[in-house]
Design goal:
Blueprint: H1 2-29, H2 38-57, H3 69-87, H4 100-106, H5 108-131, H6 141-157, H7 161-195, H8 202-210
Length: about 220
């Protein structure tokens, strides 16, 4: 079942990345006439990392043996929200005189509202992985999620430009820290498990090999 779901999720996440990358490439092409906004560029980097991280995290669901249609719809809906969030970052049809800063602030409530919705949907998705025995909830997640929700709320409420610059940098930094620390925890856990593996003595291995009926050379 996950093979079919994985293809659909890959299409949706791929389109989300396409929107952000197309916005960045268009911004580069129009750099001489359009007015770029550095906060949008930071959000573009953060959005790309977030989409890739969620896309990677969906691979844990391949271990689930029994599927229900509600779970299928939930994961697809979660992916669609992330796509919509990524699509809010850049204008769909920018022109040579596009004011990217004005577009960002005119669209900020949609952007941060969908961002908060994506984080809210991430909670049951992450908990469901642990409930189904696929992956434990990382300790860092309990700090990362409330912090990001607070950033989303502040971004939705305030039009202050300095605040939005801080929010973008804080989200990018928190995301990198969360991914790095959770990866290190998994590596450390793997090292502990590896240290507990008991290998048979070399003498036992040799005696086992001697009992094999090796073919005689002709």
């Amino acid at each position: 079942m996950f093979d079919y779901l994985g293809v659909l999720l890959s299409v949706i996440f791929g389109l989300a990345l396409t929107n952000v990358l197309f916005g960045l490439s268009t911004l580069i092409q129009l750099r001489r006439t359009a007015r770029p906004y550095w906060v949008q560029i930071v959000w573009a980097a953060a959005t790309i990392i977030y989409v890739l991280a969620v896309w990677w995290g969906m691979f844990w669901w391949r271990q689930l043996a029994s599927w229900r249609f509600e779970g299928f719809l939930f994961l697809v809906g979660y992916a669609i929200v992330i796509f919509m969030w990524a699509a809010m970052l850049f204008p769909p049809s920018p022109s040579e005189d596009t004011d990217y800063k004005a577009y960002y602030f005119s669209n900020r409530r949609w952007f941060f509202g969908l961002m908060a919705l994506a984080q809210a949907l991430d909670i049951p998705e992450t908990l469901a992985k642990q409930t189904n025995g696929l992956r434990d909830v990382p300790i860092e997640y309990r700090l990362f999620l409330p912090f990001v929700m607070i950033l989303s709320l502040i971004g939705w409420v305030t039009p202050n430009r300095r605040a939005h610059g801080i929010i973008a940098i804080a989200f990018l930094g928190a995301q990198i820290a969360y991914l790095t620390l959770s990866a290190l925890d998994r590596i450390n856990t793997g090292q502990v498990l590896a240290s507990n593996v008991r290998f048979p003595p070399i003498a036992n291995i040799r005696s086992s090999l001697d009992t094999l009926a090796w073919p005689k050379p002709r």
